[in-house]
Amino acid sequence: MTKSDGGKARSVRIAQEPAADELLGRSPLAALVGMLLDQQVPMEWAFTGPYTLAQRMGSEDLDARKIAAYDPDAFTALFTEKPALHRYPGSMAKRVQQLCRHLVAEYDGRAEAVWADASTGAELLERLQALPGFGAQKAQIFLALLGKQFDVRPTGWREAAGAYGEEGSHRSVADITGGPDSLAEVRAYKQQAKAAARAASRSA
Questions:
Q1: What confidence category does residue 22 fall into, taking pLDDT thresholds of 50, 70 and 90?
Q2: Rounded Cα–Cα distance for residues 68 and 30 (Å)
Q3: Res 66 pLDDT > 50
Q4: Which terminus has fewer CB within 10 Å in the chain: N or C?
Q5: What is the sign of the dihedral through the CA atoms of 130, 135, 140 and 141?
Q6: Taking Cα atoms as reference points, which of 14, 3, 4 lies closest to residue 142?
């Protein structure tokens, strides 16, 4: 997937669906798009999205240049076709195209170029935050995912990823490393965090 591992595909279990996970393990763009889609839908739904999108585009992988140049209405139709790729298919189709246009303009269409030569975790975090649709939290989670599951580990990557970079944590998709039990641990943590946030807002 990356220069740091010689281009070899990684074995991941994020989508909990073999074909979708195989794509995530070998395609940097699929991993980025999955992370982009990971909001307001179950994690496994979000990370299955890149595989479903590739299928609907008649390809075995995603191509940033092809997506960037795709007719916007036709691209949205790929997302809204049942079953929809996201709870908000129209807005997410637009965000995926914006992401790919950025990759074409800044990285010659190569998703892996975002992290391939980053010398520090802080530099990589800055690059990720500059991606359309990637706020601070999403950037930190993806940085943790790169470090924990794809061996992309520039100096200070754990610190840059914040709590998501902690070893042995169960905070995010970066920590889904096994079967359903691994997914359940992360989901339980996220539910507890949301409950704590709601309780704090009520007492404020």
A1: very high
A2: 14
A3: yes
A4: C
A5: negative
A6: 14
- In angstroms, the CA 99 to CA 97 distance is 5
Residue 200 in tokens: 């704090």
Helix (H, G, I), strand (E, B) or coil at 68: helix
- Inter-residue contact 118 to 125 (CB < 8 Å): no
Residue 5 has pLDDT above 50, yes or no: no
Q: Where is mean pLDDT largest: 73-77, 177-181, 199-203?
A: 73-77
- Token pair listed for 171: 């905070």
CA atoms within 13 A on the CB side of 131: 34
Q: Please choose, from the candidates 123, 115, 140, 190, the residue with its C-alpha nearest in 3D space to the C-alpha of residue 35.
A: 140
Q: What is the pTM of this model?
A: 0.89
Mean pLDDT of the chain: 92
